[in-house]
Design brief:
By secondary structure, this protein is α/β, with parallel strands linked by helices. A hairpin with a 5-residue loop joins β7 and β8. It has an eight-stranded mixed sheet, sandwiched between helices. A two-stranded antiparallel sheet has the order 1-10. A two-stranded antiparallel sheet has the order 7-8. InterPro entries: AB_hydrolase_fold, Dienelactn_hydro.
């Protein structure tokens, strides 16, 4: 029987980082997209970022795409939320970083907990798998048909982490017998809403998982269930969301985020070459 891992305050937590993305906005496959190109503009190794619930316009994911572009990947950050991200104001007051969490009173924690169902209860039904997966599959198909594209990877964060796992199931046939979706390799960073083992059993391409030891949604027991299938790293004292929404001014958080970036670069260098 599958164990479903849900979403909580940590999915609405984190830090908006400073910096100016160097890529560009475009329209590709019917979706608004942030594009960050490697030196020389080669599309041979293309990487699709599947965002968290805060969407494609948040600086964090764009800055991260820029880092992967520097490493030689042609990066796409499509708007798979249909222009309906959650506001980043939640990042200021709902389960922030570990240091702040430890100073919260019981009342504050209860207040934060009450915000979650009120927020996600109306948002999630608009972004079900039946709505979102076809958007991602269609975008992947568009990238696959783009001249110069060879191998495609997907990297997902939090809510988007599950969709990176689903794309690691490989290509599927649509009603007309055509291949849809699927990537050559994937990485899921602190995924939420996953079913264990249901979402992992069909994985047919290399999939890497990055989670923290203080992730409230993917506890160590759950991670242990997929340990034999995943190439993974466990990041000490890191909460859910650390790979995309860490505070760069915090040495430990920045170190974990940097190591996750390196993990991803090494992973995709290996499997998209």
């Amino acid at each position: 029987m599958s164990t479903n891992v849900g979403m909580g305050e940590c999915c609405l937590s984190g830090h908006i980082n400073e910096g100016k993305p160097v890529g560009r906005e475009d329209q590709i496959g019917g979706l608004p997209v942030y594009v960050s190109e490697p030196k020389g503009g080669s599309k041979t190794r293309s990487l699709i970022f599947i965002t968290d619930i805060f969407g494609w316009e948040v600086p964090n994911v764009r800055l991260l795409a820029d880092e992967y572009a520097k490493a030689g990947f042609y990066c796409y950050v499509p708007d798979v939320l249909n222009g309906d991200p959650l506001p980043t104001s939640f990042l200021d007051n709902v389960e922030p970083n570990v240091k702040t969490q430890e100073s919260l009173s019981v009342t504050d924690k209860a207040k934060n907990a009450a915000i979650v169902p009120a927020t996600l209860g109306t948002w999630l039904p608009k972004h079900t798998e039946g709505v979102t997966k076809p958007l991602i599959d269609g975008f992947i198909n568009t990238v696959r048909m783009t001249p110069g594209t060879n191998k495609i990877g997907a990297i997902g964060f939090c809510w988007g982490g599950r969709y990176a796992i689903l794309e690691a199931h490989g290509q599927k046939k649509d009603g007309g017998g055509s291949d849809i979706g699927g990537v050559d390799a994937a990485m899921a960073c602190h995924p939420s809403l996953v079913a264990v083992p249901g979402d992992f059993d069909p994985v047919s391409v290399p999939l890497s998982l990055a989670v923290g030891t203080k992730d409230s949604l993917l506890d160590q027991a759950t991670v242990g269930k997929i340990q034999d299938l995943m190439a993974k790293k466990i990041y000490e004292d890191q909460i859910h969301g650390f790979a995309i929404r860490s505070d760069w001014s915090n040495e430990k958080e920045k170190k974990a985020m940097d190591e996750t970036l390196q993990q991803g670069i090494e992973w995709f260098n290996k499997y998209l070459s």
